[in-house]
Structure formats: C-alpha cells, structure tokens
Amino acid sequence: MDEKYAELRQAVEAAELVDAHAHNIITHASTIPFLSCFSEASGKALSFVPSTLNFKRSLRDIGKLYCTEFSLEAIKNCRSVSGIATLSNTCFEAAKISAVLIDDAIELENMIDTWQHKYIVPFVGRILRIERLAEQILDEGIKNGKSWTLDTFTDTFIGRLTSYPFRLLRSYDLDTWRIVNVVALKSIAAYRSGLDINPNVTKKEAEEALAQVLVDGNPVRITNKNFIDYIFVRSLELALRFDWPMQIHTGFGDKDLDLRQANPLHLRNLLEDPRFLDSRIVLLHASYPFSREASYLSSIYHQVYLHFGLAIPKLSVHGMISTMKRLLELAPIKKVMFSTDGCAFPETFYLGAKWAREVIFSVLRDACNEGDLSIPEALEAVTDIFSANSKKFYKLDVK
C-alpha cells in the first residue's frame, strides 16, 4: 500500500503552497493569549482548550518543529527566547508556503504590517474586507464633520474601492515594496446580519439603514441588515465589472457569529440573481459544519468556489478528513483551494499546511482505492488544490 502511493505521498510533501486566505502575524509584544492559536474560543472558554483533540495534537506538532518538549510551558519558553522573525521563518519554511493572501481587517494588537510579511514569504497579496472599508469611510467623515447621505457614501465607497492597487506588479524599489496589491474582496456578512443577502435592497431601505447606522454610535460598527446587503451588492457589482473575486465567510467562527445564519444555502437568492451569474464567489472555511451544502453549491453554480482553511487544522483528524471528503463528494477539484486562515501566530500557518498535506494525501489515496481517481489524476489534484487553482483564480504572478 505504501509503495503503491509513494509517488502521491512525495508529491504532497514536495508541493509549494499558495495560502489563499490568512491574517496578519503579531509580535511578542501582543497580549493575545497563545491558546488562541488552537481555537476560535475566547474569554473563559479558552481555559478548556487544552482538553481538545486539536490542542493535544498540535502541541506535539509544534514541539517537534521546535525540537522541544511537548508541553505548553516548554513551547512558550521556546517562543519567548526566539524572535518573531525566527519563528515565522521556521514555520513558513517548514510549511513550504510560497504565497499568502492576507485579510488585514482584523486589527490585532501589535500586528505586523501586511507589507512586512514579504520578509517571510515571497509573495503577499491583500484581501480587502468591504464592511471594514465602509466603517472606516463613515468614521473618517464623522471625524471631519461630514453629513453623510446614501449618495455621498456610495460615491466615496466606490471611489475608494476602485482606487486600490489591483495590478500585480513585481517591483522592488522602496515605494512599491510597501504596496500590497489587492487580489480579492471579502465579506463578513455572515457575522453581521447573516448570509440571506437581499440582492434587491431598495434605495429607501438603504437610506433608512444608513441613518440608523449613524445614530448607533461612533466608531461605526455596521450590523444593520439592509445596509450590509447594500454594501455587499454594490461591491459585488464592482467585483463583476473588474473581475475581482469575492470571498465570503461561511460556517464556523468565534462567538460573535450566529452559526445559524452562516449556512451558504442562504445565498441562493444572490446566486440566482441574473446580474451576478458571472461573478466569482469563494465560500471560506469549508463552510463547516455545512460542508456538504458548500460542495453542492459549487457543483451547480459555476460562480462558486471553495476554500478549506480553518476547518484544517482546527478540527480533529477524523473531522478534517471527513470534512474534506464531504467537500469532494460533489465539488469539482478545479474549484477547491488551499488556505490556512492562519492568524496572529506563525504556528497557525505551519499547522494549517502540515495537516492540509496529511488530509489531502489521505483523501486522495482513499479516492484512488475506491476507484474515483487514478493515481495520475490524484497527482494532478495535488497541484491543483495546493497552488494551481489559486494562481489561476486570483491571477497571481507567482512561480
């Protein structure tokens, strides 16, 4: 059995990875607890993280990587005597990540600027979160005494979106080195008001929603469903016009999320809208626990694609393998893309990469055993899932 799949194992282990969705790394000056590396939990719930399967497994993985004891104390000590640059280089080199696309809208304490990740990984792209952009625009206007109307907001929002550098230029002078090109938009509508997005929200509804948003307080945090839907629709119109992908949070997350509203099946009205049939939509996080639903959507809507970061590595081994198998029950392999959803700690990128390799090998090997794939087809799937699909989809100029 091992000899039969030796070539597949070798291909999986040697593959360079394009991490198509992640977040910024933090410095040691941050007070974010290291336990957050292993869970979406926060507050008192973090105290139970050490009894999870993911924690116990990941602790051994990190201990082996750092050549230290498999204990939280030993790993924390190892981290404290190593600089964040050393830790990051160790994790990314072991992960073989050649490109990373960063959603930098999570304002983590003492996080590294997005452009500085270029010192860690050869290619860095930026994912622009539309709700955060809208909030920044409104906050800036309020600070400057501006009286917002829906028309003035829309003009400013669209103008700002179209002003970002979307061109992927390889240039290394000081000015352009600090520019990180935007490669996709992202929405967290699932967190704010749910995925049952109304593609036909009216101008009157949006005007009333904006008025309510402005009344709700400063700094602005947009949760009004009509305004979230309005922002999303305007953004997707632009994305379609300029051929930008739109990443959408689906499935599990931290406790701010109402999981009931994060099922991608809620997107049906949007996906059926004739205006958006040629859009390019990415369902993030394997939509766990709605992975079969995501698989189904990607099989019948040509505009729907899938990422599986966060589900890998946060679930148990059985959970990761079963989730990936559910994704591939219906999803075209050409639509499935690797990501880590790495966040704050470089170890999250390493764990995401390590377990993606283990899971993809296991799933593809089983697919060969069961007659779904030949070994040459499985080898092609390795390249597609780990890098080729993302390079093509996001139009990345990376080797």
UniProtKB/TrEMBL annotation:
Domain annotation Amidohydrolase-related: ranges: 236-396
GO MF term (any one): hydrolase activity
PANTHER family cross-referenced by the UniProt entry: AMIDOHYDROLASE 2 FAMILY PROTEIN, NODULIN 6
Protein name (database record): Amidohydrolase-related domain-containing protein
Species annotation: Lactuca virosa
